[in-house]
Design brief:
Distance between the termini: 66 Å
Number of strands: 2
Structural class: mainly alpha
Helix content: 40-55%
Order of helices and strands: EEHHHHH
Largest sheet: 2 strands, antiparallel
Number of helices: 5
Strand content: under 5%
């Protein structure tokens, strides 16, 4: 089973000089702190243990009152959101992806080259919304110019 690297927030220590206005901060510490913050913004589940993830999922299920029949799907989705390769190896908790679930995930994988394989109606919807936005922009410009 793969382990996610420990993503505990690094301490950024500041030394105050003789003047309280001057702060000397180690630039390496600032870079690690910035990288940690950026990583947490991209994936808020980074660094959570298996137990913490299960607690978060259970709390979400209870708070949102989602039927228990969806629990397995939500649990799988949460672990995939934490780590896209969470189901590549055999898991200790027994959660496994079905073959059709793996196929759909492979379709969405940008490395496999299928990102443009979407239903035609989706492209039609995007086109209509784009035209609507263009018309709205023209209307707003005409109001400003008059």
């Amino acid at each position: 089973m793969r382990h996610i690297e420990d993503a505990k927030e690094p301490n950024v220590a500041a030394d105050f000089g003789e003047d309280d206005d001057v702060i000397n901060v180690n630039s390496d510490q600032v870079q690690r702190h910035s990288a940690y913050r950026a990583k947490k913004l991209v994936n808020p589940f980074t660094g959570k243990t298996h137990g913490e993830m299960n607690d978060l999922i259970d709390a979400f299920m209870e708070r949102s009152r989602i039927d228990e029949i969806y629990a397995e799907h939500i649990r799988k989705g949460a672990f995939l959101a934490q780590d896209g390769e969470a189901f590549d190896d055999v898991r200790e908790d027994g959660l496994q992806l079905k073959e059709d679930e793996r196929n759909f995930l492979n379709l969405e994988n940008p490395k496999s080259g299928h990102k443009w394989n979407q239903p035609w109606i989706l492209y039609a919807l995007v086109g209509c919304c784009s035209l609507g936005a263009a018309v709205q922009g023209w209307d707003e410009v005409s109001l400003i110019l008059t």
